[in-house]
Amino acid sequence: MADQTFPVPSPLNTERSGNAAFLEWLHSWVVTVDHKKLGILYIVYALLFLVVGGAEILVVRIQLAFPWSGIVSPGVYNQLFTMHGTTMVFLMGMPILFGFGNYMVPLMIGARDMAFPRLNALSFWLTAFGGFLLYFSYIGGFGLYGMGNAPDVGWFAYAPLTSKLITPGHNTDYWALSLIVAGFGTLGTAINIVATTICMRCKGMTLSRMPLFVWLMFVTSALTLVTITPLTAAQIMLEIDRYLGGHFFDPVGGGSPMLWIHFFWIFGHPEVYVLVLPAFGIANEIIPVFSRKPIFGYTAMVAASVGIGFVSLTVWAHHMFTVGMSAASNSFFVLSTEVVGIFTGIKIFNWIATMWGGRIQFTTPMLFCIAFVFQMLIAGLTGIMLSVAPWDWQLHNSYFLIAHFHYVLLGAIVTCVFAAFYYWYPKAIGRKLDERLGKWHFWLFLLGFHITFDIMHWVGLDGMPRSIYTYPADRGWQGMNIIITIGAFIQGIAVLIFVWNMIWSRWHGEIAGNDPWDAWTLEWAAPSPPPPYNFANDPVVRSRRPLWDIKHPNDPDWKYEP
Amino acid sequence: MTTASILVSEGPHPPSRGMVAMSCLIIGESAIFTLFIVAYVFFMGRNVSGPTPAILSPPWVNTVCLLASSFTVLFAERAIDRGQMKRFAVLWAITILLALKFLAGTATEWRDLIYNHGLTISVNVFGTTYYSLVGLHATHVILGLIMLSVVLGFTLTGHVNETHAERIKVLALYWHFVDWVWVAVFTTVYLIGR
Fold it and tell me: Of A145, A146, A156, A152, which is closest to residue A174 (Cα–Cα)?
């Protein structure tokens, strides 16, 4: 027959050359709308910037180790700490936490995917483009002398430092535009997580049975809606000032730099809670599993989280005590800030009560969480100290403040993120992270963290201000600064061990199975790694610990829960 | 073998994801508008030179047109619920016309301010805050107009029917927001600020 002469390509021709297979693999990641792949993309992207932002601050630490060291020029120094701050908050902190949220929220509530998979992909690529824009400023942001120029106005970019007169060139515009773009990405993810939590829960997954990590991501996302948008608005105003000759923040034309400070911290303070609440959520998942007890005070945890969400919107001006406000405003912001301490205190008591009397397993994720509880406590206590206006007048913008907020950002948030990696890596990859390397990572990081940031409180109390590129030798700061720098490098080594562990365990880690930790939430019911559809059958939930119910049919939780 | 009946309370039907997402977007947008309004109020009466808000005259006709378009959209939503597609198309088209009238009104007003009163965005803080706030709103009207026009195009080519009511309502929610946030902008700029 005539048609038999056509060569018919076999549909089963799956053998491809290495190059084509690589392209196909790459393509599958670029066009993906799967929440799990996007979650991994977020996390890998954030880890990349963790290393970049970390390297930047190590240069800063070398510079500060000795007085008049002159490793970098003042201009480069300004760029380094600006890029470090911006990178760590916007390109590392938020993407990594939203990455975990992306990966875990649908799995934990028994959903097939996020509410809007394509919006999810758009959000990631907007965030990625924002990061690209920021770092493109190194070659694209031509400054006064025609050289590549990164932003150098500090991560809070106080006016009038950002005016065209004082900062010519485009570096500040790269900063503003990249954060506007990344901000829209964040807004999209926040909308997605709220819609997913409200609309996509599986049968029986009532709000009062939702895993606490999902609750915390929900509160975080709702908070993000009104947190990231003020920043976007302020950045638009800044660009109007810089490109259209507006006068919002320009004191010469009748504008007000104070307005920028208010607008920035209206974003900036809730932002801290946007970062720390998911970290609390991670601890809420890990501590019960490795204490072999259900979480203590589930309802109180939810209430405290929602409470923090609301109160965090009313505390911004505690960043502004030294700017000069009326006694009434000072008092209000002192009190509202201290209310946050009450809610956080509730949480710390609940975590300790969860561990109390439990059969604690000291695995790497649990070690990180235990460190987190105590470091969060210290961070909270120095926070209370700084919230007292007269104390703040003495120590604002000193290294005491730097030590305080790095205790929150590293001691609480990054520590919890490391715990989350050790806890959920087996789910995403199918292999456990190596415990021996994990212990090295934990103890080195803990050591380096405390060497750096405990000492930093003292150098702050001795009066060393932040953002200075060097200092005279006769101030008595030198010894402490050398120790701080050594601690920073120990942390750097710990992070490298962690990165190596991530790579090594990808191929050589112990095979995890579906449920390596004998945990109770729904993500452990799916295979590791989960298939694109997550669950073969829609799960049905009857209590807060659905896997406990399955494993213990004679003693299920739903008999006791309200 | 007997199977225990699994008692799972169905609970109330969850709201549509589209409506939840649009509500979230509106919450976020409200924060943006709040900051621009706060900036406007903050600089009220702090002009050092140039034109003052006294040169503004409230665009009543414009305002009525925009608010009326909120009602035409509402009636269009009811029409598509009942499957009256002709009625839907007409109401949708009227909405677009009203929005165009609003934009044309703003354009005329700005032309007058620029050429007859010398008010530009860079002349003083009043110009900066006025054009930013009203322009922010106009940008939202333009975005809404683009989306409304896409729907009208699909309606006229017969691609929209009552199965799309849910999606239409999500877009309509955005349009209601754009219309009613104008009340806040209008009150601030033309009634209180003058």
Answer: A152
With CA atoms as reference, the chain B residue closest to A221 would be: B24
Residue of B8, B43, B48 lying closest to A204 (CB–CB): B8
Contact yes or no for A253 and B125 at CB 8 A = yes
**Cα(first)–Cα(last) distance of chain A, in Å?**
74
Predicted local distance difference test score (pLDDT) of residue A1: 42
C-alpha–C-alpha distance, residues A308 and A339, integer Å: 9
pTM for the model stands at 0.93
Chain B contacts to A (CB-CB under 8 A): 6-11, 14-17, 20-21, 24-25, 27-32, 34-36, 39, 42-43, 46-49, 121-122, 124-125, 128-129, 132, 136
A237 shares contact with chain B (CB less than 8 Å): yes
How many angstroms separate the CA atoms of A341 and A281, rounded?
17
Query: Is the Cβ pair A246, B128 closer than 8 Å?
Result: yes
Rounded (5°) CA angle A157-A158-A164: 80
Task: Please tell me the distance from the alpha carbon of residue A548 to that of residue A211, in angstroms, as a whole number.
Answer: 13
Residue A476 to residue A466: CA distance in whole angstroms: 16
Q: B14-70 pLDDT, tens per residue?
A: 789 999 999 999 999 999 999 999 999 999 988 878 899 999 999 999 999 999 999
Closest CA to B52 of B39, B60, B61, B43: B43
Closest by Cβ to A195, choosing from B24, B39, B136: B24
Q: Report the DSSP beta bridge partners of residue A203.
A: A540
Report DSSP letters for A266-308, one per residue.
HHHHHHHHHHHHHHHHHHHHHHHHHHTSPPS-HHHHHHHHHHH
Q: What is the mean pLDDT of residues B187-192?
A: 95
Cβ–Cβ gap A199/B125 under 8 Å: no
B14 to chain A: closest CA residue: A199
Question: What is the DSSP secondary-structure string of chain B?
Answer: -----------SPPPPHHHHHHHHHHHHHHHHHHHHHHHHHHTTT---SS--GGG----HHHHHHHHHHHHHHHHHHHHHHTT-HHHHHHHHHHHHHHHHHHHHHHHHHHHHHHHHH---TTTSHHHHHHHHHHHHHHHHHHHHHHHHHHHHHHHHTT---GGGHHHHHHHHHHHHHHHHHHHHHHIIIIII--
**Which of B1, B17, B40 should be substituted to probe chain A, the one whose Cβ sees the most A Cβ atoms within 10 Å?**
B17
Nearest CB neighbour to B128, from listed A204, A247, A263: A247
Name A531's Cβ contacts closer than 8 Å, sequence gap at least 6: none
Give the per-residue SS3 of A489-552.
Answer: HHHHHHHHHHHHHHHHHHHHCCECCCCCCCCCCHHHHCCCCCCCCCCCCCCECCCCCHHHHHHC
Helices (H), A399-518: 399-406, 415-429, 435-461, 478-508
CB-CB neighbors (< 8 A) of A312 in chain B: none
- How many Cβ pairs closer than 8 A exist between chain A and B? 118
Cβ(B192)–Cβ(B111) below 8 Å: no
Its ipTM equals 0.92
Residue ranges of chain A whose pLDDT lies below 50: 1-4, 8, 146
